[in-house]
Specification:
mainly beta; about 10% helix; signal; single chain; 20-stranded antiparallel β-sheet; DUF5723 domain-containing protein; Porin; 5 helices
């Protein structure tokens, strides 16, 4: 039987058991008609929009994967035997494997023009992040397989950490045109967020090591490991009843070069640009949880590997290692990130954009989540009622990804990896997004 680990350390197993996971609106966010989804990436998008107003009903985006395993999703979907994950999975154990997952549900939200030079937006979101950093892949493989292997192995854990965090937020966005001399156009935006944290579970081991003796089924370990949780948080049953408050924010700038200051009658006299450049910083902030329980375990012990069978990590630690408990305030940092893009007009409704996203949170930072660094080039066709995107990306811990997406009036559907997931025999990340809104065009 498979070991039952807490959700914080097993949720990645769901990534290839469902087709409903996604990333944050890849391709859609550079569309002139992205509306609410655009201000999530850069708050400056709220002003000088192609819409008089934009009302989001519900949009869901998520992203997940690992450099520990890859899956042939094409064969998996075409299999006559059903979705047998293990048959299409290849493992790549290393000393510092990474697992990551995030989901973003954008609830009722709206944006509208306040004056010709300023706009307002209000967003509601529910979000969850998982990061498992620098875990020894050989150790993980044996734990999940109940140490069924017959070989001895040694392992080291250097700067091992993991954090799962779930929270809701309401954001208030203000954007304003700072400069408009016909050829040069500059706008800025800021989002202030009120955060409501559902809770977090986290683990950290700066340095630990061990050996497994297959002949005696004994696991010898040494080092220090900390395991903590916020009050009332159950990673297997997340709820938003026992909440803690925090504050966060995003800010961004967008510059457009409009050499001819031409007008597009299909866009109700909205001025054209030859290219535009944007930069933004998102998810500045944190949530603090009072009365959090953190237990420091001395891992110096020799235990039977059978201890992991039918037990979660917390139970194994409690029953086999000496621990020192403390109750303190736990500060969980948001996944702060830097984003930049260049968007170039090829002709009429054809554009190509280059976008990079860089985590501002180090992978060794405790009690924090982070995004996965990526660089995407996205050609797109866009019009008022229809847009199509073809994102080509390089992703940290994965490599090349190719996806597709479209916007058809109120409906948006897409993925940054659906094409590469289907044609590649070694997909390490996967994503999909879907959104429904009421756009009110100019």
């Amino acid at each position: 039987m498979k070991t039952k680990l807490p959700l914080a350390f097993s949720i990645f197993g769901l990534l290839f058991c469902s087709i409903t996971y996604a990333q944050s609106y890849i391709g859609l966010q550079q569309d002139h008609y992205s509306g609410i989804q655009g201000i999530i990436l850069n708050p400056a998008a709220v002003v000088d929009s192609r819409q008089r107003a934009d009302i989001n009903l519900l949009s869901v985006s998520a992203f997940g994967g690992s450099d520990y395993f890859s899956t042939d999703l094409g064969n998996l979907l075409e299999s006559e035997d059903g979705l047998v994950i293990e048959d299409e999975m290849e493992q790549f154990p290393a000393d510092d494997n990474q697992f990551f997952f995030n989901v973003d549900a954008l609830g009722p939200s709206f944006m509208f023009n306040l004056t010709p030079r300023s706009s307002l937006g209000v967003t509601t979101r529910v979000r969850a992040f998982l990061n498992l950093n620098n875990i020894n892949g050989t150790l993980y493989e044996n734990i999940t397989e109940d140490f069924d292997g017959t070989e001895n192995f040694d392992f080291n854990l250097d700067n091992f950490s993991g954090t799962i965090h779930a929270w809701s937020e309401i954001g208030f966005t203000y954007g304003r045109i700072l400069m408009d001399d016909q050829q040069n156009f500059l706008k800025a935006g800021i989002t202030l967020k009120y955060l409501q944290g559902a809770g977090s579970t986290f683990v950290n081991a700066p340095s630990a090591m061990g050996q497994y003796d297959a002949a005696t089924d004994a696991l010898m370990t040494s080092g220090i490991l900390s395991y903590g949780s916020t009050p009332g948080f159950d990673s297997d049953d997340i709820n938003f009843e026992n909440l803690s408050s925090g504050f966060g924010g995003d800010f961004g700038l967008v510059y457009e070069y409009r050499p001819g200051y031409a007008f597009d009658t299909d866009d109700h006299l909205r001025s054209n640009y030859q290219f535009r450049i944007g930069v933004s910083v998102t998810d500045i902030g944190s949530i603090s949880y009072a009365d959090s329980e953190i237990i420091g375990y001395d891992l110096t012990n020799t235990i039977s590997a059978d201890a992991f069978e039918d037990s979660d990590l917390e139970t194994v630690l409690e029953e086999n290692y000496a621990g020192t408990e403390k109750v303190t305030k736990a500060k969980i940092n948001l996944p702060a990130a830097l984003h930049a893009f260049v968007d170039y007009k090829l002709q009429n409704r054809m554009f190509i954009s280059l976008q990079g996203s860089l985590s501002l949170v180090n992978e060794n930072k405790e009690q924090a989540n982070r995004i996965i660094n990526s660089l995407s080039a996205t050609p797109r066709y866009q019009s008022r009622w229809f847009s199509f995107y073809l994102p080509l990306s390089i992703r940290q811990y994965d490599g090349f990804s190719m996806g597709a997406g479209f916007r058809l009036g109120p409906l948006s559907v897409g993925s940054g990896s659906i094409i590469s997931n289907y044609i590649s025999d070694s997909s390490k990340t996967t994503d999909l997004y879907v959104g429904l809104k009421i756009p009110i065009y100019r």
